[in-house]
Amino acid sequence: MNNNTIKNVIILGGGTAGWMTASLMIKVLGKNIGITLVESDKIGTVGVGEATIPPIINFNQALGLDEKEFLRETKGTIKLGIQFENWFRQGQSYMHAFGTIGKNFPFCDFHHFWVRDRLKGGDTDYWDFSLNYQAAINNKFAPLPQIKGTNLQGLSYAYHFDAGLYAQYLRKYSESKGVKRVEGTVKEVKLCPDSGEVQELLLESGKVINGDLFVDCTGLAALLIEKALGTGFEDWSHWLPCDRAIAVPSTGSKPIVPYTRSIAHECGWQWRIPLQHRTGNGIVYSSRHWTDEQAQGVLMNNLDGEALAEPRVIRFRTGRRRKQWHKNVVSIGLSSGFLEPLESTSIHLIQSAATRLIKSFPHQGIKPEEVAEFNRQSQVEFERIRDFIILHYKANQRRDSDFWRECENRDVPETLQRKMELFRRTGKVFRDYDDLFTEVAWQQVLIGQGVVPEDYHTIADGLSDAQLADLFKSLKTLIDGTVKGLPEHEQFLKM
Ligand code: FAD
């Protein structure tokens, strides 16, 4: 052991990022380190962030949470995908459904068979072959790892939950396992004059908090990583034009659907996240194209039920912190960067960063090699998600406002340009190293937004027309039959 040993971890911030990080760290490293979480009741949390993606299941399982209890405590519902309405053209919609579509062949994804059929004049809907989509629009759900009697994947799912209740639930969990919570507002961050590292936090109450490693979970304030250490921010607003959101909860409506809705409007888009007791609503927009009043007007005219609170404006800048780990500060959550919630990726980024920190935990002192690798992985992860979100803006055929016309003409990162061109010319799309999104996810957004390829893989010609028609028919029959046998989503929630 040397005297740089990291024994005392301070997590600053008690939003979703703070409590997710605290709970995972105490579960995995609780025998090795002490964890203190500081949060300010006066400042509160951002209070949004209620839709997730399937890896959240692994997070909850790693903590050993019981799914029924979790859904009850957080008023959670099931999410099978995201319905994108008016994104391709007004009046049209498609779903990014989780899980697989159809049946993959060795070396050749199913969509190549669908493209072959389409190029020969077929009009079969690609989503006829998505179990997730069919269950979602029929409002059905039950845990189903595999389709009965086959080796085909069953339902892949995530959750919608009340962010405040989730944080409370994880707080209870973390405190029961030994996380020490301190309530208070940090008024000063003291740096070590030699190393420039964070040495201690001074609270308004006069209390001093010392630690070896600090996790900045202060949200958009980025108190440690930016305000104290001045790490720098890579701005991506030239690729993603939206910079504001307005959020408001509403009473909701029946049935409670098992999917998130993303509805494109003239200068932005709106989300609807159905929970057991209410709906989360919000609108994301560009302040260059809409005033706050205009955006609020559109949101309030399209609410799911009656508003339950005053609408709240949230300003943001899209991009990432240049270093997610700098000196003895690791930023997790909104302090590490912001990507609009179009594909519900922020909570996943928390999960992923907390996991990465645990895997790289610097118990014998912070080594530059470890920090560099952590930062490299974080950068790649952010950039892959950024490209996927930009795709929604670039590949659409809305031309009804300056906002959408500018999207058509705006340059996109070379990494995305390459991917879109390859798909357009050949029908092929490959999941990059460290890409959160699978090939099927990319295929759905590309096809859903009207990028129909000029070609397909030659393996898809291996079936005769009659065999292809049989394949489509048998898959559709199997999926329809499986969906019919599932309980209603709300019935599952009551079980
Ligand atoms: P916050 O929730 O803001 O927490 C910050 C914490 O730091 C608070 O406890 C605060 O009290 C504390 N703090 C700050 N300053 C001080 C101080 N001086 N002293 C002491 N404590 C301090 N993500 C998804 O995955 N899905 C979604 O659907 C989704 N929708 C979103 C919609 C919008 C409009 C926005 C803005 C974000 C959305 N996100 C979504 C992102 C998601 O909300 C965040 O990733 C998540 O809530 C984590 O936030 P946080 O914990 O980093 O910050």
Helix-strand blueprint:
Blueprint: E1 8-12, H1 16-29, E2 34-39, H2 56-63, H3 67-74, E3 77-79, E4 81-85, E5 93-97, H4 111-119, H5 131-137, E6 158-160, H6 163-176, E7 180-183, E8 186-191, E9 198-203, E10 208-210, E11 213-216, H7 223-228, E12 233-235, E13 244-250, E14 260-265, E15 268-274, E16 279-285, H8 292-301, E17 312-315, E18 319-321, E19 325-326, E20 329-331, E21 337-338, H9 346-359, H10 368-394, H11 402-409, H12 414-426, H13 439-448, H14 465-484, H15 489-494
Parallel strand pairs: 1-2, 1-11, 2-7, 4-14, 11-20
Antiparallel strand pairs: 3-6, 4-5, 8-9, 9-10, 12-18, 13-16, 13-17, 14-15, 15-16, 18-21, 19-20
Helix pairs in contact: 1-6, 1-9, 9-10
The structure holds flavin-adenine dinucleotide.
Flavin-adenine dinucleotide is lined by residues 12-18, 38-40, 43-46, 48-52, 163, 185-186, 217-219, 221, 223, 245, 247, 282, 314, 316, 333-335, 341, 344-347, 350.
Protein name: Tryptophan 7-halogenase
InterPro entries: FAD/NAD-bd_sf, Flavin-dep_Halogenase_NPB, Flavin_halogenase, Trp_halogen
Organism: Biformimicrobium ophioploci
